[in-house]
């Protein structure tokens, strides 16, 4: 848990006392006391496009999809957030995308104003900046994927991204269904299914189930994604 637990009274013994632990900086304590743990069920909405943006979120468990509804009614998924990721950042006071739980999700919500008022010495702010830079890099990779790669290259790049982010190279569990993958890659569901079959027939992956994938030949998969 991020919220410190109260220290219990120690029994009176003759054992030497351990050195006292220095108190946490005031701004870091404020982060934890103002944080709100939240649970979301499968496919439930964390926030909607157009809602007021007052919090940022850190995922404890589960996977979150971030998407935007296009004028023609299609959905574009811009990101999948995994445990440890932070999301919900906006340049103004309104959310310009929606966020939903793919399966059961646990998050910790932090007030954005508290983050803005923090000092640069806070370890939490260092983590915040690091997570933000990782998110920017993933966004850049996603834009390149959509703009420059064909369907097979997109799926190969996506699988490599998931392997690297989850650390599950031998057996990769995909939390998201294939229609979510299609909306993330800018492809149709039929095309994504066909590309999975091509990778399987080429001996590059093995499909244990619709969401369980074993990568049999990572060098070939990486070559295909470039």
What does this 3D model show about the protein?
- The N terminus is likely disordered.
- The chain is globular.
- It folds into 2 domains: 121 residues, Jelly Rolls; 77 residues, Winged helix-like DNA-binding domain superfamily/Winged helix DNA-binding domain (Arc Repressor Mutant, subunit A, Orthogonal Bundle).
- It has a 4-stranded antiparallel sheet. A 4-stranded antiparallel sheet has the order 2-7-4-5. The protein has a 3-stranded antiparallel sheet with strand order 9-11-10.
- Helix content is 38%, strand content 22%.
- It has 226 residues and is of the alpha+beta class.
- The chain starts with 25 loop residues before the first helix and ends with a helix.
- The protein contains 7 helices and 11 strands.
Named CATH topology of the largest domain:
Jelly Rolls
SSE run: HEEEEEEEEHHHEHHEEH
How is the biggest beta sheet arranged? 4 strands, antiparallel
Number of helical segments? 7
Rounded Rg: 21 Å
What is the CATH C-level name of the largest domain? Mainly Beta
In terms of DSSP E residues, the strand content is 15-25%
Number of structural units classed as domains: 2
CATH architecture of the largest domain: Sandwich
């Amino acid at each position: 848990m991020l919220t410190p637990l109260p220290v219990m009274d120690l029994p009176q013994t003759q054992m030497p006392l351990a050195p006292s632990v220095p108190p946490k900086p005031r701004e870091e304590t404020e982060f934890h006391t103002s944080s709100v743990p939240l649970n979301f069920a499968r496919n439930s909405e964390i926030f909607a496009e157009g809602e007021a943006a007052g919090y940022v979120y850190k995922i404890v468990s589960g996977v979150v999809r971030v998407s935007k509804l296009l004028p023609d009614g299609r959905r574009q998924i811009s990101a999948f957030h995994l445990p440890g990721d932070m999301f919900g950042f906006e340049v103004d006071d309104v959310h310009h995308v929606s966020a939903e739980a793919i399966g059961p999700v646990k998050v910790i919500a932090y007030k954005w104003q508290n983050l803005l008022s923090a000092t640069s010495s806070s370890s939490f702010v260092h983590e915040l900046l690091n997570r933000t830079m990782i998110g920017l890099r993933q966004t850049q990779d996603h834009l390149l994927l959509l703009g420059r790669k064909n369907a097979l290259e997109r799926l190969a790049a996506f699988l490599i991204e998931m392997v690297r982010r989850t650390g599950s190279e031998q057996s990769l569990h995909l939390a998201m269904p294939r229609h979510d993958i299609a909306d993330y890659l800018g492809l149709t569901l039929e095309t994504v299914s066909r590309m999975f079959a091509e990778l399987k027939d080429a001996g590059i992956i093995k499909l244990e189930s619709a969401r369980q994938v074993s990568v049999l030949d990572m060098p070939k998969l990486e070559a295909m994604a470039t």
